[in-house]
Design a protein that fits this description.
Order of helices and strands: HEHHHHEHHEHEHEHEHEHHEHHHH
Largest sheet: 8 strands, parallel
Shape: globular
Structural class: alpha/beta
Number of helices: 17
CATH superfamily: Metal-dependent hydrolases
Helix content: 40-55%
Radius of gyration: 19 Å
Strand order of the largest sheet: 1-2-3-4-5-6-7-8
Bound molecules: hypoxanthine, zinc ion
Low-confidence stretches: none
CATH architecture: Alpha-Beta Barrel
Strand content: 5-15%
Distance between the termini: 9 Å
């Protein structure tokens, strides 16, 4: 099954570049930049990755990001992720980054964006993988700070595909970020937001109505509101679901209870993604396999998930058609009932 899933041409649409920082690279960058990390060795870092909820994860995740200082650090981080993604059969990745995590510690936003952009270009040369960068606003900060961040980022706007919204969800509904999202849309950027991970279905509705988002990141709690669920199906709003993240952060402590199979059967355009793979124990193929195993998904279902990812990606028509044709060719050559 692993070989089958790896061979599926797919897109990854929900991955935070800071969440791909493996402990080994964390130590390498800490040494390179003479930054201290509160861990003695790689084993101690991995042992600290036990989370009760989103906030307990975010506390460690923001600390880990402090080893990222120079453009080259961001380039190396992007290349390390793209190498793994390409090996997992990812043809196209839309990668989140959290500039405010870095600008708050005195790193210039240009260092972040130009470093990541150099990694994108090199990744495409080496592995043929295409990528886009999605700037995420931290929702525990103010709406004004989001607008200011976007204005600063627009000096490097040619590298941006879109904007998103992440960090602590509960108590931070989407409406406060309407101005930043309006500006993003005026600038021709795509718009997405995390909603309905820990927060209620009303935050999903708010992200659609107040922010005009084109996809919902996570969105699993939308299932609790039948009217919203009908809307997601009718409008084919993609959800970027992250099963191993949901298990680690106790959204679904047991993957056998995960609602991805039900959402898929209901006709929601769900996709499977890794979120923060260095922290949650797996990259995108591991996520496909974990839900396939827990929910008994078939090869047909897994193919549907890969197809959804290509349909939900912000790709131009030529690239999308080429990748869908590649997927059709792949499944024509393997037994789907195996
Ligand atoms: N939710 C909110 N913020 C995040 C996440 C997430 O899953 N991962 C990284 N930042
Ligand atoms: Zn996320």
């Amino acid at each position: 099954m692993r070989a089958f899933v790896r061979g599926l041409p797919k897109a990854e649409l929900h991955v935070h570049i800071e969440g791909t920082l493996e402990p080994e690279l964390m130590f390498e960058l800490a040494a390179r930049n003479a930054v201290s990390v509160p861990f003695a060795d790689v084993e101690e870092v991995r042992a600290a990755y036990r989370f009760d909820d989103l906030q307990s994860f975010l506390d460690i995740y923001y600390r880990g990001a402090s080893v990222l200082v120079t453009e080259r650090d961001f380039t190396d981080l992007m290349l390390a992720y793209l190498e793994r993604a390409a090996a997992d059969g990812v043809r196209h990745a839309e990668v989140f980054f959290d500039p405010q995590t870095h600008t708050e510690r005195g790193i210039d936003i240009g260092t972040v964006i130009e470093g990541l952009a150099a990694g994108r270009a090199e990744g495409q040369r080496r592995w043929g993988i295409t990528t886009g960068l999605i700037l995420c606003f931290l929702r525990h900060l103010s709406g004004g700070a989001a607008v200011e961040t976007l204005r600063d980022a627009l000096a490097h706007g040619q590298h941006l595909l879109g904007v998103g919204l992440d960090s602590a969800e509960v108590g931070n509904p989407p409406e406060r970020f309407a101005e930043a999202f309006d500006l993003a849309r005026v600038e021709g950027l795509h718009v997405v937001a995390h909603a309905g991970e820990e927060g209620p279905p009303a935050y999903v509705t708010g992200a659609l109505d107040a922010l005009g988002v084109e996809r919902i990141d996570h969105g699993v709690r939308a299932e609790e509101d039948p009217v919203l669920l009908d809307r997601l199906v009718r409008d084919q709003v993609p959800l970027t679901v992250c099963p191993l993240s949901n298990r680690c952060l106790q959204v679904f402590p047991d993957l056998r209870d995960h609602n991805l199979g039900r959402l898929l059967a209901r006709g929601v355009k769900v996709t499977v993604n890794s979120d923060d793979p260095a922290y949650f124990g797996g990259y995108v193929v591991d996520n496909y396999l974990a839900v396939a195993d827990a929910l008994g998904l078939s090869r047909h279902d897994l193919t549907r998930l890969a197809r959804n990812s290509l349909e939900a990606a912000f790709l131009d028509d030529d690239r999308r058609t080429a990748l869908l044709t590649e997927l059709d060719g792949y499944v024509a050559g393997v037994a789907l009932d195996g």
